[in-house]
Amino acid sequence: MGRTNVRTPIETIAAHHDGEDWTEEELEKIGAFKEFVKMRRQQKKDSRVGLIFEKKAKF
C-alpha cells in the first residue's frame, strides 16, 4: 500500500491481557501510565491553544 495524506485520528487503542497474569501492583502502574499519557496530551493541547492565541494577539 502507498502513503496517503489522509490522517484519521485513532479512536480506540486496546490492550488485551489474554493469557497474562498481572499483579494488582502492575495493574496500578498501567493505570498510572494511562493517566500520565492523558495528562501529557492535555498539556500539548493547552500549549497549542496558547500559541494560537499569542499569534492572534500580535499586531
Whole-Å distance between the termini? Answer: 46 Å
N to C succession of SSEs: H
Structural class: mainly alpha
What is the helical fraction, as a range of percent? Answer: 55-70%
The whole-angstrom Rg is 19 Å
Number of strands: 0
| Oligomeric organization of the protein chains | single chain
Bulk shape:
flat
**What is the residue-averaged pLDDT?**
76
**What portion of residues belong to β-strands?**
under 5%
Q: Low-confidence runs (pLDDT<50, min 5 residues)?
A: none
Query: Sheet with the most strands?
Result: none
The count of helical stretches stands at: 1
Can you describe this structure?
- Helices cover 58% and strands 0% of the residues.
- It has 59 residues and is an all-alpha fold.
- It starts with 23 loop residues before the first helix and ends with a helix.
